[in-house]
Amino acid sequence: MERPRPGGAPATAPVPAARQIGPYHLITRLDPPGGHVTCRRFIARSADGDRTVLVNSPLPGADPGRFAVEAEAGRRLMGPWVAPVAEVAAPGEVPWYAVPYLPALPLPVALAVHGSPLPERTVRALGAALAETLQTAHAQGLTHAGLSPAAVLITGDGPRLTCFGAVRAAAPDGEQRAGLPGLEPGGIAPEQVSGGRPRPPGDIYALGAVLAYAATGHTVPEGDELPAGLRPLISACLSRDPAGRPTAADALTELAPPAPHATVLSSAGSLMTPGWLPGRIVAALARQSAEVLAAELRLPQPPFTPHVPQTWN
Amino acid sequence: MLSPLTHDDPAGFGTYRLIARLGSGGMGTVYLARGATSRTVALKTMHARIATDPAFRTRFRLETDAARIIGGQHGAAVFDADPQAETPWLATEYVLGPPLDDAVGLCGPLPEASVRALGAALAGALAQLHSSDVVHRDLKPSNVMVTAYGPKVIDFGIARAAGDTHLTRTGAAAGTPAFMSPEQATGQEHTPAGDVFALAGVLVFAATGHGPFGGGQAADLLYRVRYSEPELSDVPPSLVPVLARCLAKDPAQRPTTAQLAAELHDGHGDFADHLPDPLLAEIARRATEVWQYQPYRLPAPADSALAPTAPDTPAVSRRRLLAVGGGSALGVAAVGFGTWTWAGRVRGKEPAAGPTASPSSSPTEPAEPKPEYTWQIAVGQPTGIDLTPALASVPFPLGDQVVLAIGNGFAGVHAATGVARWTTGEVEPNWQVTSDGTELYRVGEIKESVGNKGKPWPLLIESIDLSTGQPKRRVPLIGEYNGVVYEIQLICASGGVIYATAPGKERDKEMSYFDHAQSWWLTAIDSRTGKVRWKQSLPRRPDKSDRLHFLAGRVVGDRLVLLQETNKGEVRVVARNTRTGAPIWDKPFAGIKPEQVRERLTTDERHVYLGSGTLRALRLSDGGEAWKVPGRVVGPPAVKNGAVYAVQKGIGIVAVDAATGKVRWQEKGTQGARTDLVERPVVGTNYVYARDPSGLRAVDVGTHTTAKVYETAGTRFCAHEKAGQVISYGNRLLAAFPLQ
Predict the structure, then answer these.
(1) H or E element that contains B482
(2) Angstroms from B140 CA to nearest CA on chain A
(3) Do A296 and B148 touch (CB under 8 A)?
(4) Distance of CA B342 to the CA centre of its chain
(5) Which residues on chain A are in Cβ contact (under 8 Å) with B94?
(6) Does B317 lie at the interface with A, CB-CB under 8 angstroms?
(7) Is residue A12 part of a domain?
(8) Quick one: closest CA in B to A50, which residue?
């Protein structure tokens, strides 16, 4: 994947067509155009102004049925680093799902804002959080099958993993997945590209690709690009042979070595101490937060303009 | 920082619905609110009660105008406002970042790179303001919100813009003069160069955690601002030269905002690149928290009889009405007026509940035992200029109210219900307020003297309206006294005469201290005509002395009885003729420290009663000793209905015949042994009240034993006979207990 253009998407990139998804009025896109995201993501708000959400809908041409299945299944994903699916479309509706809004930057936007690959400290913290989430999912018998740079949202207190099941939704098992819209070409395990059913080692491959991307700007890094401290782990995750990859638990131990006096609080969260995020990313999060707070929905008042369709301005 | 709405907060203002409280103070409340278009804002309100004063309403409008001028890049963007509403309100951007004083409190002194970036950005903000012919006048750390993309300046010194440059008021209005320019401190015009001076002070604070002239009493600060070199020893060395030039006493020597910006920072990088990690983490926390907050409204207190809501202040939580202590700006609010004192800093800064929880502090626990107070409210500590804080005033009864120094002024509280009636908007040293039992007088401010070029101003005394706290009547200006000193003291008032100490006007500049070259007068002033009935010379005070001339005074018949303090700190009891001021007698009050008898003068029509040691009585007629009670060590006495009451060490209450000094009774039992010897007892009909470690103890005058102990956090007490209450004040709580 190409490194994103410096500047990334302005937080308030206009939404082309005045739109509403489910009960939510769109405020702005979350992703810059042209990225590798398997769904469309918007910051949106209920008409009464009380609920602001990230709402996800399938790309044009995607299979709405598989999207809806994955959205529903994604509700089973747990942990502090998951954007919890709070609401899904009603049966028969064009599918969408919504998670509560927090100021968040997709990882590619975060790199663009920062202006360079992220510091090793940040990569480690992100990696530990993702590994922790995968460990939980795998223990539940879930395979995420959607981890990619754009699926990782950076928030002020840690990442949020989204896009559950994107690989499965893109094409059914048994079909070639190379080159499908939204999928990150270098970020999918070879066995999944060739149509294999996504299994936990595929998530580990994606984890390696995401960490490589965070640390270098490329999902397929040159070996010497990687920081020495992360190189063995990332390289192991990116093994072509699924059996050669570490488990999520191994990766977590490698990224966040247990404290000598481990407590129940020892987790990836212990790495999100002040300074874990570079200043410009914090600034971009704060700016997005301020802009979304100040954003207005200019909805027509039904009693006065009964015949004008609802629009977003 | 985001706290729940209280049960008596309104649903909204204009088209805005309230979501949370951001902070509250004596002047108004700031809310997080959401408009009809779903925009979330910081909504600042001014209490409708205060907005009835056109001057405050004008100030609100000017503040709104100034906020619009500075705009959203360097300030909090203004979205909407209605200064004409019954409760005026202003909706601005909710600024995501801490004020600089909180930032330094949280992260410690900022690194040099942060200070430079902050300084350059603030210089840019000032340049924009100055180019619009606006001078900020009140730049200080609490008025600078640090966001991730630059500082935002809030809270303009509108009071000064409106032309009030009176020295004492300026120092008071800003809460602290620590960041004031020397020209401002002397009442001269504050130009853009004055803002540069203040900016440098803010940067010194950012780099070190203290202002360039230290802290402490306002008068000391004002002196150092004007005459001392700034304290820059712990400022990073490379910053010292430029900051020292900004802090030049001569405005012409200071750099311009453009020079300052260029010298501080070369413009490389983003603002956030220069911020330390803990500050970035705090900004990130604030940016996220606002989205995670769940709106909530606190239920009404379980026993609503204990928490009457003032019917005329529907938009105001009575509980918070007087909570005006603490910092001078909201930790979290996007906007706030520099001249307002806010409870602010909601984190951990709720007025401390005493041993007796107030009903509103635990509204969800109806099972709590019914408190014994008639009412209790949280009040702020006085924050005004007070050279001798140990001598803080006691509340005193006036009509159906209790008057007390609070926050940056005075407040009147309805004694029967605890409903706050008014607050004065200005700071007064508390000795500049007195009452004759009907009228409340204070040393006023002389607005028409602006432009007086540092010349002495005539003394102004005003009568305060007891329904609004606003000046209602002026005693005509008294030209023979200089009205610009803290030590002017209104001692007492009686029979249409105000007794005061005032400085002569031979000085041609204002003073913030006693000064040996300055003459002082004890004077009697007609409260209607302003005519000086008489004046008597007082000893000169040494330079920088902080000894007031009088500790207490009251009129009995034709005698003005005074506790007078000498230059050496000795106390004398002096009786003067109220018609001429001539001393009739003058006796030493040996072995007493001045602070022991501050506002503790006990007389009846026959005697002056002295305690705090041996209990004795001096005849008002000639000052001779009428009687004394040997062998007993007592605290200060109280007198009522022919009996003198005091707390005797080791015993408790002792009652003595006022005419003869014969002991009538003393307390039985062991409970009195720990009774406080500092305060005068409060005398009711059936009980005498005194403070001991367990609270306010009521001793039965018939059985001479403890009848009851009220838990209270109060430390000072007075009787409100008309309301039938003992008023208790201390530890930020004002409470009333039945006076029986």
Answers:
(1) strand B471-482
(2) 24
(3) no
(4) 11
(5) 290, 293
(6) no
(7) no
(8) B38
Residue located via tokens 């207490």: B552
**Tokens in use for A237?**
């995750």
Q: Of B48, B60, B80, B219, nearest to B155 (Cα)? A: B60
Interface of B with A in 264-293 (CB under 8 A): 270-275, 277-278, 280-281, 283-288, 290-292
Q: Nearest-CA residue of chain A relative to B94?
A: A290
- Contact status of B106 with chain A (Cβ, < 8 Å): no
Q: How far apart are CA B43 and CA B30, in angstroms?
A: 5
* Residues in B touching A298 (Cβ below 8 Å): 37
Torsion of CA B193, B195, B196, B199, to 10 degrees: 170
Q: Are B669 and B650 a contacting pair, CB within 8 Å?
A: no
Sheet holding A39-46, edge to edge: A20-21, A24-29, A39-46, A52-58, A97-100, A87-88
Catalytic site residue B270?
Answer: no
The mean pLDDT values, 10 residues at a time, for chain A of 313 residues are 39 53 93 85 93 92 88 88 91 90 96 95 96 94 94 95 90 84 84 92 97 94 88 95 96 84 66 93 97 87 40 36
Q: Do A294 and B34 make contact, defined as CB atoms within 8 angstroms?
A: no
Q: Which of A121, A271, A276, A293 has the most B C-beta neighbours within 10 Å, making it the best mutation to test the interface with B?
A: A293
For tokens 């009889």, the residue is: B305
Alpha-carbon distance of B357 to B371, in angstroms, equals 8
Longest dimension (CA), chain A: 67
Structural domains of chain A, count? 1
Please state at what angle helix A120-139 crosses helix A248-255, rounded to 10 degrees: 150
In our burial notation (b when 16+ CB lie closer than 10 A, e otherwise), range B666-685 reads ebbeebbeebbbebbbbbbe
Please indicate if any CB of chain B lies within 8 Å of the CB of A298.
yes
- Mean pLDDT highest for which of A107-111, B132-136, B729-733? A107-111
Which positions in chain A touch B43 (Cβ < 8 Å)?
A: none
Residue A14, in any domain of the structure: no
Model confidence pLDDT, tens digit, residues B230-282: 999 999 999 999 999 999 999 999 999 999 999 999 888 999 999 999 999 99
Q: CB distance A286–B34 less than 8 Å? A: no
- Please count the residues of chain A: 313
**Alpha carbon of B39: minimum distance to chain A alpha carbons (Å):** 5
Strand ranges for chain A from DSSP E:
20-21, 24-29, 39-46, 52-58, 87-88, 97-100, 105-106, 152-155, 158-161
Q: φ, ψ for residue B514 (rounded to 5)?
A: -65, 150
Q: What is the pLDDT of residues B434-485, one digit of tens each?
A: 888 888 888 877 655 444 555 667 888 888 888 888 888 888 888 888 877 7
Binding-site residue ranges of B: 44
Residue with tokens 């009980």: B687
- Contact predicate B335/B92, CB 8 Å: yes
User: Is position A4 within any domain?
Assistant: no
Give tens-digit pLDDT for B364-417. Answer: 333 434 567 888 777 766 544 333 333 446 788 888 888 887 766 788 888 888
CB contact under 8 A, B93 and A274: no
Domain that holds residue A224: 20-296
Contact between residue B736 and residue B374 where contact means Cβ atoms under 8 Å apart: yes
The pTM of the whole model exceeds 0.80: no
Q: Which of B9, B101, B102, B138 is catalytic?
A: B138
In eight-state DSSP terms, residue B175 is S
A156 part of contact set with chain B, CB < 8 Å: yes
Q: Which CATH number covers residue A217?
A: 1.10.510.10
**Closest chain A residue to the Cα of B34, Cα to Cα:** A49
Q: Are the Cβ atoms of B38 and A45 closer than 8 angstroms?
A: yes
Would residue A53 count as lying in a domain? yes
Stated as kind and residue range, the H or E segment containing A167 is helix A166-170
Nearest in space to A165 (alpha carbons), one of A24, A58, A11: A58
